[in-house]
Write a structure and sequence with these properties.
Catalytic activity: orotidine 5'-phosphate + H(+) = UMP + CO2
Family: Belongs to the OMP decarboxylase family. Type 2 subfamily.
CATH architecture: Alpha-Beta Barrel
InterPro entries: Aldolase_TIM, OMPdecase_type-2, OMPdeCOase_dom, RibuloseP-bd_barrel
Bound molecules: orotidine-5'-monophosphate
Oligomer: single chain
Low-confidence stretches: none
CATH topology: TIM Barrel
Number of strands: 10
Structural class: alpha/beta
Helix content: 40-55%
Largest sheet: 8 strands, parallel, barrel
Number of domains: 1
Strand order of the largest sheet: 1-2-3-4-5-8-9-10
Number of helices: 12
Keywords: Coiled coil, Decarboxylase, Lyase, Pyrimidine biosynthesis
Shape: globular
Distance between the termini: 26 Å
Pfam families: OMPdecase
CATH superfamily: Aldolase class I
Length: about 270
């Protein structure tokens, strides 16, 4: 999917919501455990109930890998279901990969070609030759971890090297990579106060912003400092939406939670006009 198509979808739906499919058999409604593929049935119900309120889904690959072959099969069914039934939706493989060049190429093939995701999250730690293989795929996007939402972000990402914070170095150096037009960045919603400076380095790039809802980040603050004229934001919520209820009404309740966020996003989009 091109960035222009993503922006058009945001305008059409008046939403820049990404729903995280962090599907955990210990948290989904108990009655679904009787299904042959409980993970897929849960995802399908959530997707069917919310697809008009969001522009992206982000399965976190760890949740699928944890269930072995069964989990991987559910992931494959989920992405196929999305691509077939809701082709306008932007899909994110939250895999946080990155390795030496030839290995990164295999990761890229796995997620971009075999599974046909539109994008993947990547850790920048191994540098240029670990990231560039992902950037060579047309209309596929690489979402580099810049400033993450967790407490551990302060261990390395905000540390200064030659008087510059490491996450700022990640942002500025990565813009020189071959294929950098395919880069997006992760910035945690819990770090909204950093967005002003981040926008000075990457004024137009899309940012994937997790951490609203369960982690306590503020949507309004993220929009105030992070929104561009082309929106430039995908705000993710996982647990706050998909586990809002563990009863028969779980999909309807997920829709209500998604609707609350979409309405808050519409208000922010109205401010642009
Ligand atoms: O790359 C991510 O998506 C990510 C980066 C980050 O800095 N913080 C973060 O929470 N995430 C992911 O975003 C999701 C957040 O989930 P909730 O806190 O339940 O909304 C999880 O899948 C995390 O792995």
């Amino acid at each position: 999917m091109t960035t222009q198509e993503l922006v058009a979808q945001i305008h059409k739906k008046q939403s820049f919501l990404c729903i995280g499919l962090d599907t955990d058999l210990e948290k989904i409604p108990a009655f679904l455990l009787e299904e042959e593929d409980s993970i897929f049935e849960f995802n399908k119900a959530i997707i069917d109930a919310t697809h008009d309120l969001c522009v992206a889904y982000k399965p976190n690959i760890a949740f699928y890998e944890a269930y072995g072959v069964q989990g991987w099969s559910a992931l494959r069914k989920t992405i196929k279901y999305l691509n077939k039934n809701y082709p306008e939706i932007f899909t994110i493989a939250d895999a946080k990969r990155g390795d030496i060049g030839n290995t990164s190429t295999r990761y890229a093939k796995a997620f971009f070609e075999d599974l046909n995701f539109d994008s993947i999250t990547i850790a920048p730690y191994m540098g240029k030759d670990s990231v560039e293989p992902f950037l060579q795929f047309k209309d596929k996007h690489t979402i580099l971890l810049a400033l993450t939402s967790n407490e551990g972000a302060f261990d390395f990402q905000t540390k200064k090297i030659d008087n510059k914070e490491l996450y700022k170095e990640v942002l500025s150096v990565s813009t020189t990579y071959k294929g950098s037009e395919n880069l997006m960045y992760v910035v945690g919603a819990t770090k909204a106060e950093y967005l002003k400076e981040i926008r000075e380095i990457v004024p137009n790039s899309f940012l994937l912003v997790p951490g609203v809802g369960a982690q306590g980040g503020s949507l309004v603050d993220v929009c105030e400092y992070g929104m561009t004229k082309d929106i430039g934001l995908l705000i993710n919520s996982s647990r706050g939406i998909i586990y809002a209820s563990d009863q028969e009404d779980f999909a309807d309740t997920a829709r209500e939670k998604a609707k609350e966020l979409q309405e808050a996003m519409k208000k922010e989009l109205d401010k642009l006009n």
